[in-house]
Amino acid sequence: MTSSITLLQITDLHLLENPDARLLGVDTADSLRAVLTQAFSQATPDAVIASGDITHHGEARAYARFDAILAEFFAGPVLVLPGNHDESGPMARYGGERSLLQFPAWTVIGVDSHENGQPGARLTSADLHSLREQCRQAAAESKRVLIVAHHPMLDVGCPWLDKDRIQNADELLEWLAGHSTTAAMVFGHAHQVVEHSYRDIALFGTPATCFQFQPDSATFTIDVDEIRGQPGYRWLQLAGDGTVRSTVERVVDYPLEIELPHRS
Description:
The chain is α/β, with parallel strands linked by helices. The protein is globular and about 55 Å long. It is built from six helices and eleven strands. A six-stranded mixed sheet has the order 4-5-6-7-9-8. It has one domain (5-250): Purple Acid Phosphatase, chain A, domain 2 (4-Layer Sandwich), CATH 3.60.21.10. It has helices at 28-42, 60-71, 88-93, 125-140, 159-162, 169-179, and strands spanning 5-10, 47-51, 78-81, 100-102, 106-111, 144-149, 182-187, 194-198, 201-205, 232-238, 244-250.
């Protein structure tokens, strides 16, 4: 039987151009290094998935920082997708959007759900056609499929986030459930753990490498729980028999000190 594939998913890094800058009091480059240090002490993955919001403002030098930090830990294949905070032009100049990984029993497909300058998701008819064709090709090769996006495909229970999910995801999920070998879909954006399913497709949302959002919050709220609010990441084990195992880890000892802006 084909051996399993180990993937490390990191998401919502929100890196800044200036090394001295902070986002809500957090040095997001430092929290990313803490995540990678812990993750790579546990295992060396076959590939890394970075599922969007690589930067916070889309500056070219912030993408260069991402490439440099990741290179300190890993030289293997990387799937990188833009999130709603990213900008396609600067991102393409520093590593670009690498959106397809091929393994003997698996195809990992990245779906670009972002639109420059907009918080919400956007999947065009051309995007959907391309995804379907890639899924058909994987099925023809007897491969299982893992799909990666930045935005959620379902409501996560936070109305202020749910308005920006992939709006035509129900139609997409129904097609995938009936016409493909898709086993799971993973995403970011929600800054919290999400674990659901659609028919036989597992849906996994992964915590950010910086700060998290409060689950079930009606408006923007940072999660200050001493465990759940910490920087996180996800391991994915893609088995040769087509099954998926996944675990979320936290850097529980990271000194996360949130500074919220004062409201007058």
